[in-house]
What does this fold into?
Amino acid sequence: MRKLYMSLSVFVLLALALAACGGAAPAGGNTVTVKETVVVTVEVPAAPAVVAPSGYGETLKAVQARGHLVCGANAQVPGFGYVDSNGNYAGIDVDYCRALAAAVFGDATKVEFRPVTAAERFTALQSGEIDVLSRNTTWSLVRDTELGGNFTATTFYDGQGMMVPVASGMTTLKDLEGGTVCVQTGTTTELNLADVMAAEGVSYTPAVFEDADATFAAYSEGRCDAVTTDKSGLISRRSVLADPAAHIIMDVTMSKEPLGPMVRHGDDQWFDIAQWTVFTLFAGEEFGLTSANVDSKRDSATAPEIRRMLGLEGDLGLKLGLSNDFAYNIIKQVGNYAEIYDRNLGPNTPTYIPRGFNKQYTDGGLLFAPPFR
Amino acid sequence: MTKTAEHILPPVLERSNLLGWMRRNLFGSWTDALLTLIGVWIVYWAASGLLRWALYTAEWKVIVVNARLLMIGQYPIEQVGRLWIWLGFLIFLLGNSLAIWGRGSRIAPALLALPAAMAFIFPFGADPRKWLIAMTVIGLIGWGLGRVKPEALKRSVIAGWVISLPIIILLTYGLSKSEASIVPIVRTNLWGGLLLTFLLTVVGILFSFPIGVLLALGRRSELPAVRWFSVGYIELVRGVPLITILFMAQLMLPLFLPEGWTVDRVVRAMVGITLFSAAYLAENVRGGLQAIPKGQFEAAAALGLSGAQTMIFIILPQALRLVIPILVGQFIALYKDTSLVAIVGLLDLVGIARTVLAQPEFLGLQREVYVFISLIFWTLSYGMSYVSQRLEERLGVGIR
It folds into this structure.
């Protein structure tokens, strides 16, 4: 017995000693011991890569010095940002980050995804933990100013949608005449619904609930004919229903929720790079450039704008501080906007959302890339 | 050792067959019979529904396909061997320890055979199967060695357990930044699943324990500054929920640190969990300290032991022995509390379960995934509980 106590005491002593010297092992960095109980392990950057870069051109330099892009992503929204069974990130927001990595490094794999929650995303961007935030974030004035970020462009025009059972055969808001709609009370969703239905001249009964869970529980029990919230929200909520395939999201949009990637205030060059990466995806679709045909199109391209965009003429890439073939790399390695959309939210995926506003302006959508000139 | 309650034979029972036993215990009166029937019906109703679901309705493919993700998150597949190596080291030590301190326990080989059994039962790939079988072999070798030379091995096994945490962290994190090295660094954003839960728990337990003991001693100290610091710390930390501490660590800390300083997110969570748990542990340990009679201090003083010697050799061993059940309860709670890190964006077992549920091909399979991770939580919690019971028996808690 005594022997055991002795060894136990030795263990306690060793544990104390370990605590005292801080167990530098966890992050392999230097250890700063504060007071007697608080142990903080600090990773001291080898390169100036971790400094929150905010001056002109500093972000690009920091990213290049680090050797990879750090992208704040979501890991839990089907179609937008999730982790597949091989452990790889996937989704439309994730593919944007790959495109940005392709633009900066010519290699779409040089990106590290950092899952960030809704609460911490802006802090993470401000403190320099991430270089770009691409995590189904709605563009709004406060976020563009007070929260220290700049939205680059809208990559997905989300908006309030309406979900109905497939069996009901309803396809437009007019079909809801006389029906009941489940909606969360006290939200802009409820007000939007009233406005849109009044404008359409449809009479309906709102069934209001205090929180989102109750709203969708009521819908799944069949207590209302339809349920409304943001479309991307409907997608993830539909996944919780007993038979997701039995419900469809109508091709109507009742409010404005523009989602897009966001960068830190203060570095205009990085902002331009992030923004023109989006425009390259748009223009790729507009000009019919896909990951499959971009090689042959590059060899045969005669249109001056395509030649400039792909870096055959002029020095557009160099003006951004990138290589001149940045757009070619994006299209070749990640694809154009339509490819990304179809891969993640297209008709052949379980997370199908009709493109709605997310079509080229030539098809009546809102996607519009400024000229590459 | 005196005779304990276990050594006194129970009175001889009336011998009877199953039918007689049933008549006496289940159908003694008409109310008993009614209760028995209702009970059987409820059990049948619940169990048959559950079994029918588990065997026919449930789509376990989501678990099979995502097994690696749930176990180790996005840890690079070519580096997985490093994790198996430290797991093998732990299992070897476990085999040793079972043989040395298990008093000829017969469950040891069965326990050690578990990995190999899993390799045959579950549809794993070739690599995990080989590793799992290797785990059993290593464990049995450790067990055999422990049985042959229990006394000689004692010290080295204890030393092995003490250095196991540094080994685990070193192998998991890696040594060198260069890709060419044998153990390149695997950044913590790739740690996930059970691996992350396990590391958060182990680090939380091992670091909060000494800090908690120090705080408990500090609270009883005669030095006012030390006492007030301990009291202030304990009361402050116990006054806030763990989730707020984690939020502070993830959201506020980056804003306070000077530019260019970042503290790794996983380390932040580890520190938060450790500091939180230490405050509770301190009070548990203080309960044990208060149960030690004054005579022990006086006897130690009479022997000429210094204050520190008294604490380390006389008081703490007794006090800690008294509070083993409550400490283990605290550790189990800590283990399950680690799942809160999912809310601050870390992909622990619960966080990774939520990402698995976001995979388009497995939408709507919440039940399967949550049942699976509940099973993992239960298995490890019960394991801890079992070890603590054995430890109590061994140290004679509640008998002496």
